[in-house]
Amino acid sequence: MMPVVALVGRPNVGKSTLFNRLTRTRDALVADFPGLTRDRKYGQARFNELEYIVVDTGGIDGSEQGIELEMASQSLAAIDEADVVLFMVDARAGLTSADEAIAAHLRRCQKKTLLVANKTDGIDADSAIGEFYQLGLGDIYQIAAAHGRGVLTLLETALAPQLEELSADADGEDDAMADDEDELEFDDAMLEDAMAVIDEVIEEDALPFEDAPIKLAIVGRPNVGKSTLTNRILGEERVVVYDMPGTTRDSVYIPMQRDEQDYVLIDTAGVRRRGKVHEAVEKFSVIKTLKAIEDANVVLLVLDAREGISDQDLSLLGFVLNAGRSIVLAVNKWDGLSQDVRDDIKRELDRRLGFIDFARLHFISALHGSGVGNLFESVKEAYASATKRVNTSMLTRIMQMAQDDHQPPLVRGRRVKLKYAHAGGYNPPRIIVHGNQVKDLPDSYKRYLINYFRRSLQVVGTPIRVEFQEGDNPYAGLKNKLTATQLRKRKRLMKHIKKR
Ligand SMILES: Nc1nc2c(ncn2[C@@H]2O[C@H](COP(=O)(O)OP(=O)(O)OP(=O)(O)O)[C@@H](O)[C@H]2O)c(=O)[nH]1
Ligand SMILES: Nc1nc2c(ncn2[C@@H]2O[C@H](COP(=O)(O)OP(=O)(O)OP(=O)(O)O)[C@@H](O)[C@H]2O)c(=O)[nH]1
């Protein structure tokens, strides 16, 4: 699960500056959901190999009275949902009563909190931050968000447990891949041996997806009709077990069956909590939504026909694609619209959702039930596409055809050469292409190749990841994926190669 880092502090301490620095790292995706909680911003960021979510909680102005109330309405949810809170103070401005009020609240929350003194550039930081120890939050991390100073150390500490977990997972990677192996030359016979091992690995990777229930998250911005749709689906189907959430802000996981297929519905709307205590706080939660997307196999993104496509819809869509999840789009509230209006809406969808033309689009009415049943065909299709097994020879053949149809360009007088391709994982499907000078492949050619794979494999409703590996070593793209048996085989193979 992606950890969540919340930035908390009074206005002007530098939260936005730090947020921007963190989310700028790589593949940043920033979503604004104004009006939900005031000006909270969400971004996806990456530290080394670890992906995490950053939340800028917006300023808490403790100088006004009723800070508790304000925090409740605004930042409480973010703090509650966060794995770690970075409580920022301004080293130049010194300690304020607002800082004290926020600190008091954070101490009560008993959430892992790091005290971060920002703007330590160009001042005598050590003496400036002294007074902040009064806040009773332990160590103080000195940073200058504007210049990046101290930020890496801060992240290392903030995300230490998650980073540790990640490196534990990656143990054995060194075993599986020695550096000098990158330089090895593989001839055809050796490659063939290696491919057999890779196809075995890939077979095994597919097993967990077989006969497993499809985890389907129903996602969308507030008021699009998620609850109505969930009720409609469950109303038609037999609910097998009823899973109650641990906290009010968790999604509800509901097992169900339909046409012999098992599903687990991930319900982000929290329909059954309606009218209960927490309704006033906040039903819609971006973090909950992001976690549901992360945890799903297929995401059903619900749009509102009457509202058109909003930036929030596009942000959610971006998160789904970024997470590599399969997707089905449902345009809800399709009932009672005139033909003219429907035509207008379809034109707008064409225009704004052209970039995701690989996803199925359904027009439904959750209220009346029309179109709801058909969604499941697309969900199954998307899942099947995302977990479709493809062996090395098939992928290499497709890659070769693509290359024959349209050669990679010349770069500095040399032609980029693609040699072979193999699968690297599922949901999303990963295809790893080996070749020479692949780093020089222009994006346009990469897109061409992705589309070629997509058409040839008839992949619908899921993003595809195509990765490029320089050189022949077929293990380079798999790293620690090999099992013990495969490792033995691989070692034998490597010995064999090195002898020659
Ligand atoms: N000298 C210095 N100034 C900084 C640093 N980080 C931020 N600032 C400045 O501090 C001011 C406030 O920064 P923001 O990032 O907008 O602060 P914020 O906490 O997001 O403020 P709100 O959006 O009002 O909550 C800006 O003028 C920044 O340029 C830093 O590391 N050093
Ligand atoms: N006309 C029409 N109205 C709908 C349809 N589906 C939902 N609605 C209405 O839209 C409003 C919002 O529906 P909800 O199901 O509560 O939406 P939600 O996405 O769960 O909202 P949050 O829980 O606030 O995130 C309600 O008034 C529903 O009656 C539909 O298919 N047609």
Highlighted features:
single chain; 500 residues; alpha/beta; Rossmann fold; GMP Synthetase, Chain A, domain 3; 3 domains; seven-stranded mixed β-sheet; six-stranded mixed β-sheet; 17 helices; 37% helix; globular; binds guanosine-5'-triphosphate; GTPase Der; ribosome binding
> What is the count of DSSP helices, taking H or I runs of 4+ residues?
17
- Helix and strand composition category: alpha/beta
- Give the overall pLDDT as a whole number: 82
How is the quaternary structure best described? single chain
Report the sheet with the most strands, covering strand number, pairing sense and barrel closure. 7 strands, mixed
Ligand types: guanosine-5'-triphosphate
> What's the total count of β strands?
18
- The tally of domains stands at 3
Q: Spell out the CATH superfamily of the largest domain.
A: P-loop containing nucleotide triphosphate hydrolases
Broad CATH class of the largest domain = Alpha Beta
Keywords: GTP-binding, Nucleotide-binding, Repeat, Ribosome biogenesis
GO molecular function, one term: GTP binding
Domain EngA-type G: 3-166, 214-387
Organism: Oceanimonas baumannii
